[in-house]
Amino acid sequence: MAEVKKSRDPFIDNARFILVFLVVLGHFFVPIRGDHPVINEINNLLGLFRMPALILLTGFLSKGFMKPGFIKNITMKLLVPYFIFQIIFGVYYYFLYNDPTYEFYLLSPQFTLWFLLSLFFWNLMLFVFTKIKYPLLIAVILGVGVGYISEIGHYMSMHRTFVFFPFFLLGYYMKLEHLKWVKKRFMKVAAVAAFVFVYIMFEQVLSLNESLNWLFGYTPYAGLGYEEWYAGFFRLAIYGLSLIVGFAFLAFVPTRETFFTELGKRTAYIYILHGVVVETMYELYLYEALSSVWDYTLILVYGVIITLTLGSNRTVRWMRPLIEGRVAQPILNRKN
Question: Acyltransferase domain spans which residues (predicted)?
Fold first, then answer.
């Protein structure tokens, strides 16, 4: 009898969809976060876990790196789309901003595209880190230590690659039962307490205005205004707080099939494409449309519409050749 392929647990895809929605929401918040402290605080709290948790779950789904053809596969699904959209977005932003001083660099990722480049490197790094002792400890040391090197920054997403790699590696080593331990009885109460604790602690660690710059993970400590030897302890604290609130978030994720479970398998489409939509909306009219704090409720509506639209069957059908790198498949499949 043929073996039936086990489908992916809905819990994972539910979590991925909610997280990518929060990423979309966060990118809506960033341009106007300085106008209202409450929005700034909410965005900072969400920023603590949305990308780390999404990266952790991505690492959890990357356990097949030893399979034949793995490097070719990630090249087609990560590196090819990166270069395609890096060029497309670069040209688009040049005309959108109508800025003659706008500079485009092929290896300096546009907006959301850093994730594709970092994810490519994270997958390659598994070949090394799964063969050494204390891989998680070394990953954390590198993630903290890279902040002291001012020369490593946005270029090729090197800084973010090392900063967020511990979450990816942790996800790789986790099993489903590790992720679902937060679904035990009374864990939602503990999760609420965790959110409150982390909110208070985060306010004590960093000021409101500088918090998000730390969470972005692409600026060395000196660029953040911290040249002291103990700057790395702030990143360690952020690592800890991110994990606490990240698992607290998972406590509220549905474990059963929902209307958005299938969309959780299409987060690449939502993530890659939403940035250009958000920037276009702000450039054309959104700054003027948001005149009061109540107008910001529109952002929730826009966030839902954009997330559902970019994850729809139609978007997947139209964009699959580019998002999944299929346009390069004839070249990659060509035999020497």
Answer: 10-310
Q: Is residue 241 part of a domain?
A: yes
The structural domain count of the chain equals: 1
Tell me if the pTM is above 0.90: yes
In a domain, 41, yes or no: yes
In a domain, 174, yes or no: yes
For residues 161-181, b (16+ Cβ closer than 10 Å) or e, as one string? Answer: bbbbbbbbbbbbeeeeeebbe
Angle at 101 between CA 100 and CA 102, to 5 degrees: 95
For 126-157, b where at least 16 C-beta lie within 10 A, e where not — what string? beebeeeeebeebbbebbbebbeeeebbbebb
Range of the domain at 280: 10-329
Q: Token match 């937060």: residue?
A: 182
**Could you read off the pLDDT of 172-182 as tens digits, one per residue?**
999 999 998 99
CA–CA separation, 85 and 269 (whole Å): 12
User: Quick check: is 4 in a domain?
Assistant: no
CA distance 149 to 162: 12
Neighbour count for residue 24 (Cβ, 10 Å): 26
What rounded mean pLDDT belongs to the chain? 88
Q: Which two tokens stand for residue 261?
A: 């479970």
Residue type, 331: I
